[in-house]
Specification:
The complex is a heterodimer of chains A (442) and B (627). Chain A has one domain: Up-down Bundle (Cytochrome Bc1 Complex, Chain C). The radius of gyration of chain A is 26 Å and the shape is globular. A two-stranded antiparallel ribbon of chain A has the order 1-2. Chain A is built from 17 helices and 2 strands. With 627 residues, chain B is mainly alpha-helical. Chain B folds into 5 domains: 118 residues, no CATH class; 131 residues, Cytochrome c-like domain (Cytochrome Bc1 Complex, Chain D, domain 2, Orthogonal Bundle), CATH 1.10.760.10; 84 residues, Cytochrome Bc1 Complex, Chain D, domain 2, CATH 1.10.760; 73 residues, no CATH class; 128 residues, Cytochrome c-like domain (Cytochrome Bc1 Complex, Chain D, domain 2, Orthogonal Bundle). Helix content of chain B is 39%, strand content 3%. Chain B has a two-stranded antiparallel sheet with strand order 1-2. In chain B, strands 3-4 form a two-stranded antiparallel ribbon. In chain B, strands 5-6 form a two-stranded antiparallel sheet. In chain B, a hairpin with a 3-residue loop joins strand 5 and strand 6. Chain B is elongated, with a radius of gyration of 34 Å. Chain B starts with a helix and ends in a 15-residue tail after the last helix. Classes of the chains: A mainly alpha (442), B mainly alpha (627). At the A-B interface, helix 7 and helix 14 of A face helix 1 of B.
Chain lengths: 442, 627
């Protein structure tokens, strides 16, 4: 083969050489090839070489985490393009919106995509959390990743909220006015938090600038960092959760695929006694491969019957499907529905009712019953409980299955929380008219 | 397999949507208009050079950036209306029609060619027409989008507007509101509707309640200086026709206006957009430095004061928009039908010049009519001196009392929201039965000074007043009257009226009374909003100076039954304390110098009061401390 390459004209071989220099592997035809394709590519090597079959089951994950990530990618791309046109100034912002809608090439479509992806991301992140809870996937060793996930939900909400102000129309202005006054109901620090957010006692130029900086720089950076850790933790916590039976059924599992990359014996911290026994002789040798330095339930190499498959092409194909579905969905919605742009801000003329963004309408509905408890007390307790879920619920049973019988109580409590909040949002969105009085949407 | 189908479908959708979006982006409607224009212009072209120049042009977004008039504007209207300045297209269909030339707009003909006075390159389009200059789609550009605040004036109505009024809101004449942005002269020929509207603003007494920078100083209603910027013409029209259409809580009266008058007012209001283009900020500042005089005062009438002229004036100046006079009733202010029997001319004149000088909490605005006009109105009102024809007590109550005290006697008649103090709730037996009958008869006879309860002495006979009182007790109070308890209260304040006593009284007042009566003793304390009837304004001199010490002692020491005023004797107040309090309250309302040489009664707090409560306007102009 090498002699062949030498004889070829370098000009003729140029495309192939360039291709080879970028992609080190040809399309893989063997398991070794599949493995090295995964870890010689920067983007692919973020994935494990092999992935458990359970992680690929569409009905298990529903692809929600990936969907949230892809929506974030869409948001970054469209957001950067929008930044070329946007000016965070109270006198110019609205005019820029008009330009985007009327004159800028693809302006309205970019705005639609950005708007609907943002709403979609809030919804999908929330659904992702529901999936993780209802499959019991926050149990050890994945407790901290759950905490990161809750943090990510909060950052997502805040990102969407800060973006809401930027068009500087009536919808934006009054939603943020309502939203920040909900924050001011917090005891002691409430007023200060509001002032810190707005840079003023009312929503104005300072608030617009602050929200802009938070929206385009601070929060995306925070979110990216948290997402990176979230992904990294998935691998370090042993991949996605799966039922225990899936790991310990040697009978109907085919023999492990031979991995040819063996550099000294690998040491494994086994979770099951059987695996520990199997690993014992290896341990006796007392010298460690690179895997021996890290602790935790990692991908087992060679010595445990597993049901994993190569990431190439199985995982990557699944990811592509989720990606395309997400993009297609966003494109379709953006084609048919225009992002709202209401009147320019009129400080003297609040709409009645002035409503917060839809994902805070549950809060606003609660606030209409009690300012402190609805706006601060209950939400704080809810968020704290969400953070503490994996530390309160220590029973390791029913992991990796939807609605496991063992988790009846936990799932019941969680679904109650979800349904109550969704119902409150629906009431706040559709059933509240002027002066926050009950109206029928029909 | 299913993966592949999903992949295929999703890819297909992505592809299709991209196709549609790209098609939309590159095949704009305005390009078609421009292409059509180039073609037709070519066929109309007379020289080859002209044709060549047209060949050079390709469709592009045209825009005019106007920076000279107010905030800078970007008008892209000429992207579609590309022929607007091309005189050959006068008979074409829109959007390729020439903007008409008109001498009324100041256009002139030079050598058979029109020249525009308002060149599009200088003025743009939206400065006269409104609409959204930045838009390139007619839906947005013309302002049909319901969220756009300035649809093309007189041409475009929005879908959310009341269908009943929509046809009335079209017509070129609405654009006068925009002409008036620069042509501010009072007698500018191009803006007759603005001038008619301005005239109506004064004729219909709008200026009494509303402020407009440089024109009027009313404070009762909202400031209208930039109302044209805040609201669309449909709002202005409908709000004038029916003030409660948009604001259910508005107490602006319904005026009797013809469509023509409403249109003039709408155009006038639409022209009020704060700073107009003709003004510089410096000019505005200079204008503000000059004393604003209500323009109503300018309308001096040369005619001698006469009752006939007065009747005419009452009709013209819309008095009955609030007041009742015979058949006409504005449901806001008192009935004037028997005014000649109730008030004398001095009272009326003083009340006209400053309503608060007679009823300290009155909401009636100060109207700057000419003195002769006031005299005419007074003269007319003097003629309203026929006693009412009512016979039975029920008829009298329904005819005279119910308008304020309510059909059910609950103090919630049609006008009750606008009267301060509010009419007495006659159904509250605990109050009604705790006061001697003589007091009610007294109130009926002489009225309650400083309030809207008028003296009925000359309207009703002694006998009639007595039967009305009996009627009230039988119909509304219902509970039988027991024997009134004899209470030990002095007839006259035994505590000497001097500085020390006032100081002590003030201290007690600040400790005990301010929660309801307020730190200014004006009855507007923090608790006052939750209390019905509202706490008494203790600075209402007409009222306080007319109440004997005995009643004050009785109210303070033993409370006022049926109200929130507690019996202070139960809270440790002695008769002497009450005496100090009374001296303090009297001192707030006294016009005379104090014994002890001090003019202003003390009030260490007085300084504090004016500092802490600065936003509360001084309601009691009759009081010397207010000056």
């Amino acid at each position: 083969m090498s002699s062949q390459t030498k004889t070829r004209n370098p000009l003729i071989a140029l495309p192939e050489n360039i291709w080879r220099s970028i992609f080190r592997n040809p399309l893989p035809s063997s398991d070794l090839g599949r493995a090295s394709t995964s870890f010689t590519n920067f983007f692919l090597h973020l994935h494990p070489v092999k992935v458990h079959r359970n992680s690929l089951r569409a009905t298990f994950t529903l692809g929600l985490g990936l969907m949230a990530f892809f929506l974030f990618m869409i948001l970054v791309v469209t957001g950067i393009l929008l930044m070329f046109y946007y000016v965070p100034s109270t006198t110019q912002a609205y005019d820029r919106m008009l330009d985007l809608r009327g004159t800028v090439a693809f302006g309205i479509f970019l705005r639609n995509m950005h708007r609907w992806s943002a709403h979609g991301m809030v919804a999908v992140v929330f659904l992702h959390m529901c999936r993780v809870f209802l499959t019991g996937s926050y149990k050890p060793p994945r407790e901290f990743n759950w905490v990161l996930g809750v943090l990510l939900l909060l950052v997502t909400l805040f990102l969407s909220f800060t973006g809401y102000l930027l068009p500087w129309d009536q919808l934006a202005f009054w939603a943020i006015t309502v939203g920040t006054s909900i924050a001011s109901y917090a005891p002691i620090v409430g007023k200060e938090v509001k002032f810190l957010l707005l840079g003023d006692s009312t929503v104005g130029q300072e608030a617009l600038l602050r929200f802009y900086v938070l929206h385009v720089a601070v929060l995306p950076a925070v979110l990216s960092l948290l997402v990176a850790i979230h992904f990294w933790r998935i691998r370090k916590d042993g991949g996605l959760s799966r039922p225990e039976e899936e790991d310990a059924l040697p009978a109907d599992v085919p023999a492990p695929t031979q991995v040819e990359v063996v550099q000294g014996p690998a040491v494994v911290m086994a979770t099951s006694p059987a695996a520990a026994a199997a690993a014992q002789p290896v341990l006796e040798k007392r010298h460690y491969g690179i895997q021996g330095l890290v602790r935790g339930p990692f991908t087992k190499i060679g010595n445990v019957p597993d049901r994993s498959v190569f990431a190439w092409p199985n995982l990557f194909m699944a990811e592509l499907v989720v990606f395309l579905i997400t993009v297609a969905g966003v494109l379709l919605v953006s084609l048919f529905f225009n992002a709202p742009l209401e009147e320019p801000v009129n400080v003297m003329h609040p709409p009645n009712p002035a409503k917060a963004p839809w994902y805070f309408l549950g809060l606003q509905e609660q606030v209409s019953y009690s300012a402190f408890w609805g706006g601060v007390g209950i939400p704080t307790i809810e968020v704290l409980l969400l953070f503490l879920v994996p530390y309160l619920d220590r029973k390791i049973a029913g992991v990796g299955r939807w609605f496991a019988r063992e988790r009846l109580l936990a799932n019941f409590l969680f679904l109650t929380f979800v349904i109550v909040n969704v119902v409150l949002i629906i009431i706040g969105t559709f059933f509240r008219g002027p002066n926050w009085e009950f109206v029928s949407p029909w | 397999m299913s993966t592949r189908v999903t992949l295929a479908v999703a890819s297909f959708v992505v592809l299709i949507v991209h196709g549609i979006v790209f098609y939309d982006q590159f095949f704009n409607r305005w390009e078609k208009h421009q292409t059509a224009y180039f073609e037709q212009a070519r066929s109309l072209a007379k020289t080859d050079a002209e044709r060549r120049a047209l060949d050079q042009r390709s469709p592009r977004i045209e825009q005019i950036i106007v920076t000279q008039f107010g905030e800078s504007r970007v008008d892209r209207c000429t992207t579609c209306h590309v022929a607007s300045d091309d005189p050959r297209f006068q008979n074409h269909a829109q959007p390729l029609r020439t903007h008409p030339y008109s001498a009324a707009l100041g256009d002139v003909q030079v050598n058979g060619r029109w020249e525009r006075r308002h060149k599009f390159t200088d003025f743009g389009c939206t400065i006269c027409h409104d609409g959204q200059g930045r838009g390139l789609e007619s839906f947005y550009a013309h302002g049909e989008d319901i969220f756009w605040p300035d649809p093309m004036l007189g041409y475009v109505t929005q879908a959310s507007w009341h269908t009943e009024f929509r046809p009335k809101l079209t017509g070129k004449e609405y654009m006068q509101a925009n002409c008036a942005q620069c042509h501010t002269e009072d007698n500018f020929a191009g803006t007759p509707l603005v001038q008619r509207g301005r005239q109506l603003f004064f004729e219909k007494a709008c200026y009494g309640c509303h402020r407009i920078e440089g024109l009027s100083n009313g404070t009762l209603g909202p400031d209208l200086s930039d109302v044209g910027k805040k609201y669309k013409i449909n709002y202005l029209w409908e709000h004038t026709v029916n003030p409660r259409a948009f604001q259910p809580t508005s107490f602006m009266p319904k005026f009797d206006l013809s469509d023509e008058e409403i249109k003039a007012l709408t155009v006038f209001l639409k022209s009020r957009r704060g700073i107009n283009f003709a003004e510089t900020a410096l000019g505005q500042y200079r204008a503000r430095l000059q004393q604003v005089k209500a323009e109503g005062a300018k309308q001096e009438t040369s005619a001698m004061p006469s009752a006939m002229r007065g009747e005419q004036l009452i009709g013209e100046r819309s008095c009955t928009a609030c007041h009742r006079l015979g058949e006409k009733d504005g449901h806001i202010a008192p009935d004037l039908s028997y005014e000649g029997l109730i008030r004398d001319e001095d009272w009326m004149m003083a009340h006209f010049r400053e309503p608060k000088s007679k009823i300290p909490d009155s909401i009636m605005p100060v109207f700057g009519f000419a003195d002769a006009d006031f005299r005419s109105i007074s003269a007319y009102l003097k003629t309203r001196s026929t006693p009412p024809p009512f016979k039975t007590a029920e008829e009298i109550y329904k005819g005279l009392c119910a308008r304020c005290h309510g059909e059910k006697g609950d103090g919630k008649g049609v006008t009750y929201l606008y009267l301060d103090p509010a009419p007495r709730d006659l159904t509250k037996a605990s109050f009604m039965n705790s006061k001697p009958e003589e007091r009610f008869l007294q109130s009926l006879k002489n009225g309650v000074p400083g309030t809207s309860m008028p003296p009925w002495e000359r309207v009703l006979t002694d006998e009639q007043r007595r039967t009305v009182l009996t009627y009230v007790f039988e119909t509304f109070v219902k509970e039988p009257r027991g024997q009134l308890k004899e209470r030990k209260v002095p007839d006259k304040n035994p505590v000497a009226f001097n500085v020390d006593s006032i100081h002590r009284g003030e201290e007690i007042f600040l400790n005990r009374c301010t929660g309801c009566h307020g730190r200014k003793a004006d009855g507007k304390g923090p608790n006052s909003l939750d209390i019905s009837p509202r706490p008494r304004n203790l600075r209402n001199s007409f009222f306080i100076n007319n109440v004997p010490d005995k009643r004050l002692f009785d109210s303070i020491l033993y409370g006022v039954q049926g109200t929130a005023m507690p019996s202070w004797i139960d809270y440790g107040l002695t008769q002497n304390d009450a005496g100090d309090l009374i001296n303090f309250i009297r001192s707030l309302n006294s016009q005379t110098a104090l014994p002890g040489g001090e003019k202003s009664p003390t009030l260490t707090s007085q300084a504090n009061l004016s500092q802490t409560n600065q936003e509360v306007p001084c309601l009691n102009k009759g009081n010397d401390k207010c000056k």
